[in-house]
């Protein structure tokens, strides 16, 4: 039974992403949405933590939220998949549980 973890707060303001990564299990998925998308960009303070997490969990970022913040999807760190709203729905359907980190 896998879990989809959604994180919507900027990791530069809240510790939701850190808590999420500490609880996510192998085969879980982590989706960065809203202001949390800033963590997905390569070269920031969370890049190494996400790269480590990506060894056991699947990492995704919502493309429309990147665009809404003027962020370039081409600058997303390797190992993080950019998805659209249909991909979000697919992730929700593929996982038995959804946990939102606020």
TrEMBL record:
InterPro entries: DsrEFH-like, Sulphur_relay_TusB/DsrH. GO terms for cellular component: sulfurtransferase complex. It holds the Pfam family DsrH. Transmembrane segments: none annotated. GO terms for biological process: tRNA wobble position uridine thiolation. It comes from the Bacteria. This is Protein tusB. The lineage of its organism: Bacteria, Pseudomonadati, Pseudomonadota, Alphaproteobacteria, Rhodospirillales. The gene is tusB.
